[in-house]
Amino acid sequence: MSVSRFLSLVVFCIYIFVALFLYPEASNVDFLSYRHSAFLFPFVMFFLFCLTFIWFPDQWGSIVRGRVTRPSPGGLVAFMGWVLLLLPPLVLILVKIIYKYVL
Q1: Contact 5, 55 (CB under 8 A)
Q2: What percent of the chain has pLDDT over 70?
């Protein structure tokens, strides 16, 4: 397993831990109840989708359809996977900064 795959899996596990145990809504419902799993399912699916870009960049980059006429470099696909994977905490940090200094 490459370092990138391992680190992305660690980030994914941290996100799941935060969603299960630290998210305020999770404490208001029974553990793994229907409401909790309905909250968790799209969250997990989004991050699994991001992991596929990091784990299989060459396969995603080789897709050529429609307006895409050339294969994309695997490194660029993996980089965009990392951007998507790290986007939620970056947005939260940006929102906190905006609320603290702008509003």
Answers
A1: yes
A2: 82
Q: Which residue has the tokens 């006429």?
A: 69
pLDDT tens figures, 51-78: 999 999 999 999 888 887 899 999 999 9
Q: Residue 98: what are its φ and ψ, rounded to 5°?
A: -65, -45
pTM of the model: 0.78
End-to-end CA distance of the chain: 45
Residue among 43, 39, 56, 36 nearest 14 (CA): 43
Gyration radius (Cα) of the chain, Å: 17
Nearest Cα neighbor of 48 from 6, 9, 94 is 9
